[in-house]
Amino acid sequence: MSPRWEPNPDVRRGRHVVHHLHAHLVFVTKYRRNVFNDAMLTRCEEVMRKVCEDFGADLTEFNGEEDHVHLLVHYPPKVALSNLVNSLKGVSSRRLRQEFTGRVNQAVMHGRFWSGSYFAGSCGGAPLQVVKGYIENQKRPD
């Protein structure tokens, strides 16, 4: 008897697509100021988790230090990653500045919470060399 195939719960299905997209995102505070404490990181995670849900994405992992945060996001192909990033940074900036006014010195940060740039890396799935090899070995039609 052959083993039963178990579907991967991380592979999502839509009406016309099967997908498994993950991105590693890193956001840095403006001027790399040491702003975060444990309470702010916890609240930042809550806010970002809600933003992801609104986009149909999952915040799989979250962590950070005094001047930056790391996110692992599982997102659908209909979501432009840049739009998700803009919402994550915009909503979290607004909420954290409202809720932690004593901790966030607006004068030093010139009204901005996050740096204008960010890191985004694709992750998950097969290593790049494996995918390249698979594509190279596909049979071409005669």
TrEMBL record:
Protein name according to UniProt: IS200/IS605 family transposase
Stored InterPro entries: Transposase_17 (IPR002686)
Domain Transposase IS200-like, first and last residues per copy: 18-138
Pfam family, one: Y1_Tnp
